[in-house]
User: Which sequence fits this backbone?
């Protein structure tokens, strides 16, 4: 392995630890890992696939006794909100979907609405205190995000829930497999099936 490739893998390993222990997202974790290692500013940062592989390895080594139960609790919380927001075609994405989440992770749901404001009105109707902001959606376009905290009795603490509001027409593109051939998000049925398979395994 060439020196630059070695450094890239070192950044990925440090970034993975920051993702798991500090709850950073991949982008922030890679930048902090680069700075922590004193890598030159133009050092190639690892791809997310490499960081995810390192996250899985780190979890297996240091959190194998706690992570599965924490992941299951977060997925059950996600299912609760997906059921409450069923009319907006919710799809789970991120660490809770791909199985790398710990109790430090938030729940990320992508909603697909004919009217982007309808989801926020639903939260207001349910008296859910939330913060609205604009973020980049999965297709790169700016979308509205609604963030709030939800009690998670299984974990004994509130968990952040983030709703990214996409147009209904974006759903077809959202179902395309990722670079690894796996779906990058799933609806309630897909999540329930994934949970059942992992329980059986």
Assistant:
């Amino acid at each position: 392995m060439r020196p630059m490739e070695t450094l890239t893998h070192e950044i990925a390993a440090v970034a993975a630890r920051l993702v798991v222990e500090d709850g950073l997202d991949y982008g922030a974790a890679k930048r902090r890992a680069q700075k922590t290692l004193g890598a030159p500013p133009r050092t190639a940062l690892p791809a997310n696939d490499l960081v995810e592989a390192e996250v899985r390895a780190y979890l297996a080594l240091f959190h194998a006794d706690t992570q599965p139960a924490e992941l299951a609790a977060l997925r059950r919380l996600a299912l609760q909100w997906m059921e409450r927001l069923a009319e907006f075609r919710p799809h789970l994405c991120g660490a809770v979907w791909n199985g790398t989440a710990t109790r430090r992770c938030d729940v990320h749901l992508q909603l697909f609405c004919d009217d982007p404001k309808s989801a926020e009105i639903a939260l207001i109707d349910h008296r859910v205190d939330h913060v609205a902001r604009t973020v980049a959606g999965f297709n790169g376009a700016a979308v509205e995000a609604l963030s709030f905290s939800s009690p998670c009795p299984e974990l004994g603490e509130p968990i952040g829930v983030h709703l990214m509001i996409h147009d209904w027409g974006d759903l077809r593109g959202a179902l395309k497999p990722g670079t690894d051939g796996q779906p990058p998000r799933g609806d309630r049925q897909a999540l329930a099936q994934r949970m059942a398979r992992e329980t059986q395994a």
Summary: Strands lie at 91-93, 107-113, 131-136, 142-152, 157-167, 185-186. Residues 3-62 form one domain. Residues 113 and 168 are 5 Å apart (CA to CA).
